[in-house]
Amino acid sequence: MRITAVTCVKNEGPFLLEWIAFNRLIGVTDHLFYSNDCSDGTDRLLDALAARGLVTHLPNPAEGRNYQMEALKHAGQLPLVRDSDWVWIADVDEFLNIHVGDHTIPALIAASGDPQAISITFQFFANDGIETFEDAPVIAQFTRSHNPDIWCDQTAQEVKTLIRRDFPLQYFGAHRPFFKKGLTGEARPIWTDGSGRPVQHKFLVAANPNRIRKFPAKGARDFATLNHYALRSLDSYLVKNDRGDVNRENRAFDDSYWRERNDPAWQDLSIRRHLPALETALAELKADPEIGALHAEAVRLHRAKRDELLAKPAYRQMQAQLRAASTLPPQEEAMLKTLGIA
Fold first, then answer.
1. Low-confidence residues of the chain, pLDDT below 50?
2. Nearest-CA neighbor of 253 among 337, 325, 311?
3. What are phi and psi of 236, to 5 degrees?
């Protein structure tokens, strides 16, 4: 079974090898990376991996700022994607945690009845109070999350989707594919959630603009969950924040994104089942002198960027604000205050 993972990256150098090694453990056979504007060696590491046949690396074709959608449009025309049995579109901080069989994508597909698409529900993993970036597997460091059935005040949660080659594709979305207009009845794709149940009709046909990429999470994760490590360490979050916004001078910092994803109410260690094999796979990749050196350089540049940012008053203020931030999501805290509990 040929399974291709497609992703877009900018300054993800320290985290590339873990994501690639993990995906290979669960059955991904090919990786297609699009990169843009990298300053931490992400592109150089990907080029070295590509030279060894481990990934395909292309510059992002976007001419404006819609990097992901332009890349996905381009990917849909490539034989690497078109000839794959399945396509998995995800980000480098997202890990597909499969709970059935041998914990691989083929096992998930079999358990789900071999549909044409499988949408897997997010579970957002908190920072766990970890401040310092460490060059160690993310899946080992961060183990706490919100109640998987409820995120902030929402019972419907976002998904990412595995897509079979015969899906009647109109175009790829970052969270879900869209099928050709006018399809009715049996012509529509067979599409399940992470428990092998048919997705809700309104999600299937994208009828609700507010739920175009999400549906209720309860009962949807029996076979698989999508572990999303959007925060990682406080160091890495500061660097990530700079990546998306290079000018924060004289402007207030909104900590809502952090607080919404930093709920430590639940502990989930299930993905650690892969840790021994992952550590072995990482050691094998780093044993290549060039790959090991480029990874180490990305780690060094990541730390250097943190130091550069913390030399600025705005980022020291941001760091202090995040350290002091409540671990209650803003919506939950507001509700408790309304009830007079908090």
1. 245-251
2. 325
3. -70, -30
pLDDT in tens, 224-265: 999 999 999 999 999 999 876 433 344 457 899 999 999 999
Other beta carbons less than 10 A from residue 230's beta carbon? 20
Instruction: Judge contact between 118 and 162, C-beta under 8 A.
Output: yes
Tell me if residue 49 falls in helix, strand or coil.
helix
Nearest one of 27, 16, 213 to 120, comparing CA atoms: 213
Separation between Cα atoms, residue 192 and residue 190, nearest integer Å? 7
Helix, strand or coil for residue 50? helix
Q: Cα(304)–Cα(213) distance, rounded to whole angstroms?
A: 37
pLDDT recorded at residue 334:
86
Residue 328 token pair: 């209650």
Rounded Cα gap, residues 178 and 166, in angstroms: 13
User: What's this model's pTM, rounded to 2 decimal places?
Assistant: 0.95
Count of C-beta atoms within a 10 Å radius of residue 41: 24
For 314-323, b/e burial (b = at least 16 CB within 10 A) is ebeebbeebe
- Give the pLDDT confidence score for residue 246 in this predicted structure: 35
Other Cβ atoms less than 10 A from the Cβ of 36: the count is: 17
**Which residues 6+ apart lie within 8 Å of 169 measured at CB?**
76, 163, 177, 178, 179, 180
CA proximity to 225, closest of 121, 337, 129: 121
Bridge partners, residue 31, by sequence: 5
**d(Cα 317, Cα 9) in Å, to the nearest integer?**
27
Cα–Cα distance, 83 to 172 (Å, whole number): 15
Looking up tokens 């991904």 gives 28
DSSP class of 13: G
Give the relative orientation of helices 313-324 and 289-310 as an angle to the nearest 10 degrees. 90
